[in-house]
Amino acid sequence: GAVVSQHPSWVICKSGTSVKIECRSLDFQATTMFWYRQFPKQSLMLMATSNEGSKATYEQGVEKDKFLINHASLTLSTLTVTSAHPEDSSFYICSASVVVAGGRADTQYFGPGTRLTVL
Amino acid sequence: RKEVEQDPGPFNVPEGATVAFNCTYSNSASQSFFWYRQDCRKEPKLLMSVYSSGNEDGRFTAQLNRASQYISLLIRDSKLSDSATYLCVVNVNNDMRFGAGTRLTVKP
After folding, report:
1. 3-state secondary structure at position B97
2. Which of A50, A106, A108 has the highest number of chain B CBs within 10 A, making it the mutation to test binding with B?
3. What is the mean pLDDT of chain A?
4. Residues of chain B with pLDDT under 50
5. What confidence score (pLDDT) does residue B9 get?
6. DSSP bridge partners of B46
7. DSSP string across A60-95
8. Among all residues of chain B, which has the CA nearest to that of A40?
9. Which of A43, A99, A109 sits opposite B100 (nearest CB)?
């Protein structure tokens, strides 16, 4: 099956620092990758959608200058949380999908998530 | 109205029970549908896709009703290991929209 990895799996950082999270599709080429955030006991919240080689599309209310997304290849997308603050502490999950015939996105496969704690 | 709505639960059922979850969606242009399960502090994992004709995988049955814009998930003979949050996911123009999830706890 399709495997998506994320690195790091957890990170603790000081307020004001930047944190980069990598998302890789290991055994398939992902035309589209998604970044989600999930606070405790809440649902997944889509932050942005990125297609390889183009700028990410951010959801309303998500600051693109704070959450930098780079989708440089069909197997790698990165999310950088710039100048992190304690309120950015959350579970960040990426997913990857393939666009099948007809232009429809196929099933999303999720990475294991990155737990970010900002002190 | 939310794009994808689910009863948050929690559903607390004994082992062996049959439990059903419903999910409604607002966009009639929705193209594909999925059920995911998410364990505490873990990523969502695909449980099953939902096809127009309905589909079954072991103890799990998913059904789609396009006219009424809802999908359902039925779990028969519940196991302790079925305890999780079940997420309804709807694909609209390549935008995957998640429901808030329904929590299920299966008790001995």
Report:
1. strand
2. A108
3. 89
4. none
5. 84
6. B36
7. TT--TTTEEEEEEETTEEEEEE-S--GGG-EEEEEE
8. B41
9. A43
